[in-house]
């Protein structure tokens, strides 16, 4: 690093699970860019202070992850249409003291499903109403899916459906009974992250019909207890690692000037690292 090194990073709490630093620094090496991407643990309530500090310190921008995406949206000076539609921002670009927010979680999620030959059609039930769920819901809706939202805190699910304009809220206790009507189930909560949450997925998946697609956006571990239960039922499953790579490309381009490929080498690098840490 020297005085000309371009700096970016990821803000989250916790942030140590994130493989984004490994991915972006790999792309910097591959494309011979004088850049660095660092993890930035920022406690809830400190996001604005942290962002203004990074702008002042000359950072190009940051990724934003759990739990800051919705607050990041509110703090942006400008927003892309996609971020506005999602009501969340996961990519911030700093330009002339201003913060410009974009949201690539939804397109990253959909691109990854398509790469796994999962059709984006019919009824999609999304668990969660946080930043990532908002983006996934908006993108699935844009691609023609009928969207159902269920969240532990019902008011957040209702606010999301209101923001989307259409969609149906299902009570958190009710969704397992409605699973038989769905083509796709998406876990967009942090349940399963680092083994978090004590959920009896095999019981909750009982009503699922053959042909149900089950996607988990959590990728630490890749094989979450939801995906294990879904595989045992013979459902088609997609883990969250491909989404991580697909959503990261636009941020890298915004900060470092090159659009990297979501190629096998990037995937293998992260998959091997997760395996080394017992997170396959
Ligand atoms: N693969 C990828 O590229 C990718 C991209 C983005 C995010 N993610 C992952 O997606 C997850 C969510 O991220 P986010 O940014 O959307 O976070 P967030 O805004 O903080 O939202 C968290 C969501 O999880 C729910 N939740 C948390 N604990 C729960 C529990 N014990 N039982 C039921 N629901 C619970 C919350 O429900 P309440 O509203 O009731 O609190 C909320 O809906 C994280 O694990 C993150 O790492 C992965």
Automatic annotation (TrEMBL):
Pfam families xref list: SDH_C, Shikimate_DH, Shikimate_dh_N
Pathway: Metabolic intermediate biosynthesis; chorismate biosynthesis; chorismate from D-erythrose 4-phosphate and phosphoenolpyruvate: step 4/7
Binding site for NADP(+): 81, 128-132, 151-156, 217, 240
GO molecular function: shikimate 3-dehydrogenase (NADP+) activity
InterPro entries noted in UniProt: Aminoacid_DH-like_N_sf (IPR046346), NAD(P)-bd_dom_sf (IPR036291), SDH_C (IPR041121), Shikimate_DH (IPR011342), Shikimate_DH-bd_N (IPR013708), Shikimate_DH_fam (IPR022893), Shikm_DH/Glu-tRNA_Rdtase (IPR006151)
Catalytic activity: shikimate + NADP(+) = 3-dehydroshikimate + NADPH + H(+)
Assembly notes: Homodimer.
The family this protein is said to belong to: Belongs to the shikimate dehydrogenase family.
Listed name of the protein: Shikimate dehydrogenase (NADP(+))
Origin organism lineage: Bacteria, Pseudomonadati, Pseudomonadota, Alphaproteobacteria, Acetobacterales
